[in-house]
Specification:
Layout (H helix, E strand, L loop, with lengths): L11 H16 L10 E6 L5 H12 L3 E6 H4 L7 H11 L2 E5 L3 H10 L4 E5 L5 H15 L6 E5 L4 H12 L3 E5 L8 H9 L4 E4 L2 H5 L4 E4 L11 H7 L7 H4 L7 E3 L22 H20 L1
Parallel strand pairs: 1-2, 1-3, 3-4, 5-6, 5-8, 6-7, 8-9
Length: 297
Amino acid sequence: MKDLISIADLTSDDIQNLIKSAIALKHGGRRPLLEGKILALIFEKPSLRTRVSFDVAMKQLGGHAIYLSQAEVGLGEREPIADVARVLSRYVDGIVARTFANQSVALLARHATVPVINGLSDEEHPCQVLSDLLTIYEKKGGLEGLTVAYIGDANNVANSLLLACSLTGVEFSIASPKGYGPKEEVLALARKNGGQILIAEDAKQAVQGADVVYTDVWTSMGQEAEAARRRSAFARYQVNEELLSLAKKDVIFMHPLPAHQGEEIAEGLLDSPHSVVFDQAENRLHMQKAILVELLG
């Protein structure tokens, strides 16, 4: 593959190979596999984990990253996206784009001659979810036959997680209020992959017997005007110890961060014995290394 825009760009073998590569890189120490390579980071949205993990990954692999904010690039405003892609292709070896619109990342990939990686868009967050699969693989010893229950808004993370589960033999259940569930086109792609999917409005039904319980914020970046309405709609979808007790005894709890304690999760849940949230955050670094080596190496 040249680019990573969507989980749909990958096969089951691709995902398994990236997980194995990430584990090897995690335990293999720093290696100059991308010595002399330059990565451009184009970010329309603020970031902690995505920016730092890609920057550190490049440094640990012997390369270098350049951060470009929206104020500097003006993607699609100050300059057409196609022109940005063609110019950067003359300077750097790869591009990570964190944008509001998925179409912006797709246009960059279409016109760039170097690899383009989706660092988050309104439709997907593939790097986050590949890191999540790495974490689940480490904690559970594999993927196939597990059940992941996602509670909350069917946002970009949920879309990528749904597609990734369908490719790796993981059953997926999701509980969302009416009107906030997965889009039909995402479900169609997942079902085409043979995914076993349960869609519910009852969070308790979704987590029954689950190996993994996953949630995310109720209001994503760019949806701030909807915050009050969303808090009301999702009030019954908080993940807490009572909800986790309906899953398997060895359930793990996941959240991509940042988390809003008291909203989508109960106070203190990040420190629960079930929580692997900060292992997830660390694994962003190792999976990003695997992705970079695959695309730039």
